[in-house]
């Protein structure tokens, strides 16, 4: 990789803008690949708000000075060191753009951040394992204002990196190290781990079933925490955890005893207190935006569970 990494971020939404900010701070030569409908907005630059636990009225900062590409032809005309996939799991599979982009970006390292259990396997159709780095997203980002009536100097993207959070990545060392080094140089808390897909599989399974249940409860914490709703979610979450553990050759034995309805009752109000934004609204807005991804992940747990001969009765009932 050259001294100034040439980085292409696919998708300039809530996640792409935040990674872009850190990569630019690290001195990368940055471009976004966006859909034509977002190109003008991207060319004007973005407004970011970094939230802190005590700082509820952050100042806007302008994020600009990057290239904007809208086609694979434009991408193919340049050389790239890193390609970051900042789109949902379902967007990955929409059409055949991933294969085409893989051909247009030569030997670049690809960084995937998608949450579905089978995303890495799916991407390996197009990207050789020697070039693929996997990561997770420890921050929360959203279009602000989040709620009507919230006052901000101007609309933008707000993001919150919880204290002590770590952005885990894994992959072949000669591809992983430059990614970690670059992110750290930009102030991002990147850490290597042997297998991030396995590390996040169980938390992601619980989150997915929780969000699916929250949607069924009309995105209301109060309705979600009622006895019937909690009972269904907790049973489906236990099944999803077992599927996630089996698929990633991990172990669910420490998590399953803790996974009780009371856990949601205890954690949800605490989480709502700690986040420097309205958590209930964020969950509704964000997971409505990526609703198809949640439904697809639920179907994946059912399918993988069935193939592995694991119990899936509650997952199946919860899937829509
Ligand atoms: N935001 C968070 O707090 C957060 C936290 C953890 C994980 N994640 C995960 O991160 C992923 C991205 O989330 P996000 O919040 O950044 O979503 P987002 O704000 O919708 O951003 C994704 C952007 O990529 C665009 N896009 C889709 N396919 C594309 C393609 N082929 N080429 C170029 N652009 C494309 C989308 O366009 P359209 O608008 O037309 O779809 C959208 O503008 C999701 O899997 C999400 O679950 C997000």
UniProtKB/TrEMBL annotation:
Highest taxon in the source lineage = Bacteria
List, alphabetically, the InterPro entries matched. Answer: KPR_N
The residue ranges of the Ketopantoate reductase N-terminal domain are 7-52
Pfam families membership = ApbA (PF02558)
For this entry, the protein name equals: Ketopantoate reductase
């Amino acid at each position: 990789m050259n001294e100034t990494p040439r980085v292409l971020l696919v998708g300039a939404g809530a996640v792409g803008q935040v990674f872009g900010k850190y990569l630019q701070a690290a001195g990368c030569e940055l471009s976004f690949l966006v859909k034509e409908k977002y190109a003008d907005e991207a060319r004007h630059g973005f407004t970011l708000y970094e939230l802190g636990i005590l700082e509820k009225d952050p100042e806007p900062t302008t994020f600009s000075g990057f290239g904007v590409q809208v086609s694979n032809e434009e991408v193919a005309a340049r050389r790239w060191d890193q390609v970051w996939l900042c789109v949902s799991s379902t967007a990955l599979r929409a059409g055949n753009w991933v294969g085409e982009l893989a051909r247009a970006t030569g030997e670049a390292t690809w960084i995937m951040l998608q949450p579905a259990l089978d995303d890495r396997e799916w991407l390996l159709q197009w990207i050789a394992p020697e070039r693929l780095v996997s990561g997770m997203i420890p921050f929360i980002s959203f279009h602000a204002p989040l709620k009507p009536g919230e006052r901000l100097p101007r609309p933008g993207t707000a993001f919150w990196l919880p204290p002590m959070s770590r952005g885990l990545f894994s992959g072949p060392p000669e591809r992983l190290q430059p990614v970690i080094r670059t992110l750290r140089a930009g102030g991002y808390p990147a850490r290597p781990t042997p297998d991030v897909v396995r590390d996040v599989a169980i938390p992601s399974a619980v989150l997915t079933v929780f969000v699916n249940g929250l949607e069924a409860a009309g995105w209301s914490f109060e309705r979600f925490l009622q006895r019937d709703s909690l009972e269904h979610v907790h049973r489906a979450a236990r099944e999803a955890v077992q599927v996630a553990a089996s698929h990633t050759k991990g172990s669910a034995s420490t998590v399953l005893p803790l996974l009780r309805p009371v856990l949601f009752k205890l954690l949800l109000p605490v989480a709502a207190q700690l986040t420097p934004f309205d958590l209930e609204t964020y969950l509704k807005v964000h997971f409505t935006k990526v609703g198809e991804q949640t439904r697809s992940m639920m179907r994946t747990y059912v399918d993988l569970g069935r193939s592995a001969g694991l119990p899936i009765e509650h997952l199946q009932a919860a899937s829509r």
